Amino acid sequence: MNTTETLLRPFVRTEGPYQLQSLDRAVAVLDMLGESEVPLSLAEICRRMPLCKSTAHRSLMVLERAMLIERTPDNRFCLGMKLYDLGNRAVEQVDLRTRVRPFFRKLSQQLGETMHLGVLQKTSVVYLDKADASRRVCSGSKTGSSNPVYCTAMGKAMLAFLPPEAAKNVIDHINFVRFTNKTLCSREDLMKSLERVRRRGYGIDDEEIEMGVRCVAAPVFDENHMPIAAISVSGPSARIQVQTVPMIAAQLLRCCGEISSALRSRPRRKAQIAPVILEQRGA
After folding, report:
1. CATH class of 86-264
2. Prior bond to 50 cis, omega within 30?
3. How far apart are CA 155 and CA 157, in angstroms?
4. Same topology for domains 3-79 and 86-264, yes or no?
5. pLDDT over 50 (residue 264)
6. Is the pLDDT at 155 greater than 80, yes or no?
7. Residue 140 pLDDT
8. Taking burial as the number of CB atoms within 10 A of a residue's CB, which of 127, 157, 193, 206 is the most buried?
9. How many CB atoms lie under 10 A from the CB of residue 126?
10. CATH architecture of 3-79
11. Cα–Cα distance, 232 to 217 (Å, whole number)
């Protein structure tokens, strides 16, 4: 055993048969960036870990290549959108639908309109669940299908409440296509729409993807106030009229608030991550 290994031995978790130093280190970097409120420089990461510069740089390059972290214009590092994509997939895997379904099916029956549960996947909204009430809306939406984020109420409801860098990353990759004469087809129009969503707390699809159909959506937040999903109410514009949107939105916001609270109260198992292995400076 060399000198460095001897010095680091007290910091290595010995329980468990499997250990991979480079992976443990990468996970520790992700944890640290996730806990930081601002992007961190290489020097700051080295101080906090602590790690020698060359080792920290290698870890950061691997994470950046995998899009798990991103580099800001001033050469700092923050969590990447790939983690948000993976997080959304994890939400599916823990069966978000089962936990949400009682809430949004109840509201669907109260409003008599179709409701959807969706998550953000890159620049699209993927529909995880659908509740058809007695009065059905004529639309082709189905579980597993997707629609562009910029012209759906759910997409705008989630996009508006993402951290600025994460939202920018999504918007930068949008390919705007016109579906109706009301579709938002420019970055400027979308940004104005997202500002309205932030002010009122919910998003609207005003016949932007299908003429004659209007949707209202609100986000579902996790314990870190990240929008992990959204719930929408959809119906013919003759029924969901402009003057009735605030009433529908108020009920929808209450429903999403209850869902968010229920998700936050769920017992969580804290991930057991081995402490980062300290290294000698200049090793």
Report:
1. alpha beta
2. yes
3. 5
4. no
5. yes
6. yes
7. 54
8. 157
9. 19
10. Orthogonal Bundle (1.10)
11. 4
Q: Can you say how many angstroms the Cα of residue 111 is from the centroid of all Cα atoms in its chain?
A: 27
Under the banding of pLDDT at 50, 70 and 90, the label for residue 200 is very high
Written in H, E and C, the secondary structure of the chain is CCHHHHHHHHHCCCCCCCCCHHHHHHHHHHHHHHHCCCCECHHHHHHHCCCCHHHHHHHHHHHHHCCCEEECCCCCEEECHHHHHHHHHHHHHCCHHHHHHHHHHHHHHHHCCEEEEEEEECCEEEEEEEECCCCCCCCCCCCCCEEEHHHCHHHHHHHCCCCHHHHHHHHHCCCCCCCCCCCCCCHHHHHHHHHHHHHHCCEEEECCCCCCEEEEEEEEECCCCCEEEEEEEEEECCCCCHHHHHHHHHHHHHHHHHHHHHHHCCCCCCCCCCCCCCCCCCC
